[in-house]
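Justification of resources, computational component.

The compute hours requested in this renewal are based largely on the per-chain cost of generating structure records like the one below. Each record pairs the submitted sequence with a full structure-token output. That output is archived, and it is also reused by downstream analysis tasks.
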Amino acid sequence: MTGGQVGIALLGCGVVGSEVVRQLDQHRDDLSSRVGAELVLRGIVVRHPERPRDLPVDPSLFTTDALGLVARDDVDVVVEVVGGIEPTRSWLLAALNAGKSVVTANKALLAEDGGSLFDAAHRSGADVYYEAAVAGAIPLIRPLRESLAGDRVHRVLGIVNGTTNFILSRMDETGADFADALAEATALGYAEADPTADIEGYDAAAKAAILAGLAFHTRVAAADVHREGISGVTAADIASARALGCTIKLLAICERSDDGQSIGVRVHPAMIPRTHPLAGVNDAYNAVFIEAEAAGSVMFYGRGAGGAPTASAVLGDLVAVARHHVQDTKGPRESAYANLAVRPIGETTTRYHILLDVADKPGVLAAVATLFAAHDVSIQTVRQEGHGSDAILVLVSHVARDAALAATVADLSDLAIVRAAPSVMRVEGMS
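The structure output for this chain reads:
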């Protein structure tokens, strides 16, 4: 280790921030040796500095003055694990405008207004690193930003939310309904008291926006992402998927169009074959499957959340930007030169699983098939199960446009022979 120090301002000291402090203390010598200078905490921003904390730091480091801390001359790197949009955005912009590099785990801010951070970093020559913003400890951002920078990525397909993956895994394993699986996830600490961001897909949509931006060199915001959650997934959907040899996952899907002129970014539950590599990713684990022109298929797997895994990613970024500071170099800049259009969901093409509760009488299947054909949606398979005067029709389509399928479903709902609203789910990864 050479001489000198790298001063660190830590914004936030919750679950992740506390673990960052502990690991900085526990591995101080190793981390400093890797950087080539001593890593020194200059201050920690919290709401209640007077609150006792079982952490290996001087209590005088705790402060509420974030803007004052990031502006100090002895601070070189700002590590942000607070989350949210404001006042965090203002703090990070102040740091970047002052030439301080930033390490952040803030997926919501990056997905809503990452462009302002990247622009500020470009003007001042500072770094912005954010490995912890997507999939916790899984090395994913850096491979997309650096390792695959010489390749052409066609598709990113991933499970990027541990809470929803735990819920769907339990529904698949036990036959539980959604409410019971959510209650179990809450009791085990996988789901927040208010699980809306997870179960309605907001968390995954923010991560999908970040991944799409990296993969396709285009700025993508969370508002550009088509989002559907898992609260509508039923035990009947799970059973129907099993009958098809599939399981259901909440997927983040980012894909380039065939002509290369646009991209699609979506988050929704989907059936995938049990032979697909993502099908075996269960409990609260995350995995991301990348398809690139030269590299082929590459998969990243691991724990996507939690204090220690997320702190691992934060510290990896901290070592990288601290090295740059010591060596007077910079990391890769934002790559958003492509500026590709984001396609609306109606232009997406995939397969669909449609479950219909219909009257069990002659001519029903013919009427349904005629309606599908009218919208240019081809049926691949049909299965019928009779229940007295009612029947369940289970159809899987060939690849079709989402808009065409939506129009088909709307017309199906108007048929007198259809007893309830059709249940529709996309099918991915099926040849």
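Residues 307-327 form the longest helix (21 residues). The chain has a mean pLDDT of 94.
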